[in-house]
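for the writeup, i need someone to sanity check this before i put it in the appendix. the sequnce is what the collaborator sent (i think, or maybe the updated version? ugh). structure was predicted straight from it, no edits. if anything looks off just tell me and ill rerun, i have time this weekend
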Amino acid sequence: MVKYLASTQVEPGLKAMKHILVVEDDDVSIAEDGPAALTLFADASHPVDLVILDLMLPGMSGYAVCDTLRQQGHDVPILMLSARTLVEDRVRGYDVGADQYLQKPFELEELLSMTRNLLTRRTWQGQRGAAKDIGPVYQFGRAVVNFDTFSVTSNGVPLRLTHTEMKLLRYFAENEGSVVTRAQLLEHVWGLSHMPTTRTVDNFILNLRKYFEIDPAKPVHFLSVRGTGYRFLANGDGGSTA
């Protein structure tokens, strides 16, 4: 089932609201502003499988809506739409928890492909379950992570991780000890099945090392595997093979 939480608000510079017709044989819900979207989302009798979220919303930005949903612990896939072209805008979208960011104008086929990808990945995750049953609270090294409440401490110091950082950390915990490639991480954490060479994964690994390693330059938990990807070790044994 697909449910769309969208807005008819147009980008700055256009004077009028636009009338959008959605033709869909699944259950579709429309919210015209951020608070209405959150209210609709809170209706437990109609669970939402996917959020397609416009960035420019009246009264409450798409960033704020996305961040609120993530702070409430919802892991529903979120596809953010915007005419903004700056890299900083896409980064901010991912930082507040968007799974995908699609820039306007776009082709309908591209939107449908991303929608299918996000829904398929969610279904696959539900059927697959965790590679390891790590439970809601996970401990490794000096860290304690609660994946339900998004609370994280390292050596007793509270940390605030982005939604994507939490997803990445959970994927490592579920696959502890296994070598995972960058392509696997891009697919299962970011939902990107076709991606050119990118430093995205490497940059996020650097963040995790800053949070959790005693010496980020000599990691014992988040290890590089030369020419392949990474391996996470909860007990901190071993060394980097980079």
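DSSP finds seven helices and ten strands in the chain. The longest helix spans residues 108-128.
thx in advance!!
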